[in-house]
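TA notes, week 10

Several of you asked for a full example with nothing omitted. So below is the full record: structure tokens for the whole chain, then the designed sequence directly under it. When grading your own attempts, check the secondary structure regions first.
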């Protein structure tokens, strides 16, 4: 019971924060408990009978993790995970405060966690994962990672601490460089080039031949994808459209084959993916005042580009909101916005930078509104589109503020449409 006082304080902090800010309380309690009982999470993550699985990389962590958790749970495993996508260490403390016991335990068979690529290497120094999944290395925000090689080094540290097997992206040269540093068993997932290609970060080193992927995305039409797996072709329906979500699915499929071994049931895995809702704000659709609104999170150049490219058409009504989390708005200029023919509303803390960039790209803007909450109300009050639905492209800070403002406080309250 050594952790009882810290966890009680954490729960009281969570309760107090949620009184002041409904839906809040996901970060501060974890921060408090991490200071009072710093060894708690390491002990927890070392306690699961089937070990720890880490899913990390620049993009796709949240969706891949949710897919893998859904498949594992469908097979009867109890799973400790981070459903709010709180993917740094204090987020794991917060998850334990919310869902664990007051003795610092969480009754589960396995931990499947998405981990921020900048923090995972530090955590695995104390807790070695049984399996790790290295998704990709993309150019990220320069204020955070000066060079993609820094990300690759951090991901390599995770891979080298893995005890049983590392699952890597067969099409990313960065992942293949990481594979060369790993002595344990490795396996690969991939996507055929005619289905989707991605602008992975350049290594500026001699190219490595792509290995044969164990499982591959071979077809994609809308949300329907075909995976060529070791047990044969499987047709699945993705929770959101886009080749990047298909790649997340094949990564999740591959790691679950490893976790479950001979107990893996491809039909059960297929049903899990066919029915799984999207991760919140990753193509999430909410009904507001009887009208469907689609919310799409953009976090760096590659996620912005992929999400714009995978829009069915330029939305008839579009809001573009860039919040405080974008400390260096220069990366906004590296994206091709030609798919957009107009933006109805520009807002968020960095509204001026966003509006300047869109104007420079000759994209007409109807309204620039510095008051973010007024912008939300004015955008939602627009007449219902004749075609499609209202669409919001926003960064993480703008996403969190909108969700709190509109009362979307439960990250698990996401429906499949």
């Amino acid at each position: 019971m050594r952790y009882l006082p810290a966890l009680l304080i954490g729960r009281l902090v969570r309760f107090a924060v949620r009184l002041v800010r409904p839906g809040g309380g996901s970060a501060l309690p974890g921060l408090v408990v991490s200071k009072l009982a710093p060894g708690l999470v390491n002990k927890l993550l070392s306690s699961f009978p089937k070990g720890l699985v880490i899913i990390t990389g620049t993009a796709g962590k949240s969706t891949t993790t949710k897919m893998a958790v859904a498949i594992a749970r469908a097979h009867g495993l109890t799973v400790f995970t981070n459903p709010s996508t709180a993917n740094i260490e204090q987020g794991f403390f917060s998850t334990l405060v919310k869902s664990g016991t007051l003795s610092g335990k969480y009754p589960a068979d396995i931990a499947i966690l998405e981990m921020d690529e900048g923090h995972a290497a530090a955590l695995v120094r104390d807790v070695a994962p049984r399996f790790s999944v290295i998704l990709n290395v993309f150019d990220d925000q320069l204020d955070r990672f000066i060079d993609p090689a820094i990300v690759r080094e951090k991901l390599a540290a995770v891979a080298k601490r893995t005890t049983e097997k590392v699952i890597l992206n067969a099409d990313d040269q960065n992942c293949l460089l990481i594979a060369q540093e790993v002595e344990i068993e490795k396996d690969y997932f991939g996507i055929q080039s005619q289905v989707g290609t991605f602008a992975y970060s350049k290594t500026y080193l001699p190219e490595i031949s792509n290995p044969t992927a164990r499982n591959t995305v071979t077809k994609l039409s809308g949300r329907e994808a075909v995976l060529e797996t070791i047990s044969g072709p499987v047709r699945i329906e993705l929770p959101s459209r886009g080749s990047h979500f298909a790649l997340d699915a094949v990564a999740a499929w591959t790691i679950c084959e490893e976790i479950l071994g001979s107990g893996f049931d491809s039909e059960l895995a297929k049903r899990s993916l066919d029915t799984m809702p999207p991760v919140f704000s990753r193509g999430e659709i909410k009904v507001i005042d009887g009208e469907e609104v689609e919310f799409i999170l953009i976090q760096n150049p590659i996620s912005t580009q992929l999400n714009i490219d995978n829009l069915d058409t330029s939305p008839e009504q579009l809001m573009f909101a860039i919040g405080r989390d974008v400390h260096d708005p220069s990366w906004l200029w590296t994206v091709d916005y030609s798919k957009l023919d107009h933006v109805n509303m520009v807002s968020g803390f960095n509204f001026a930078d966003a509006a300047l960039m869109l104007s420079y790209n000759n994209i007409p803007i109807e309204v620039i509104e510095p008051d973010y909450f007024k912008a939300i109300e004015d955008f939602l009050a627009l007449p219902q589109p004749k075609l499609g639905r209202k669409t919001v492209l926003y960064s993480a800070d703008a996403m969190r503020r909108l969700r709190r403002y509109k009362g979307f406080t439960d990250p698990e309250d996401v429906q499949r449409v």
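The first helix runs from residue 4 to 20. Use that as a sanity check on your answer.
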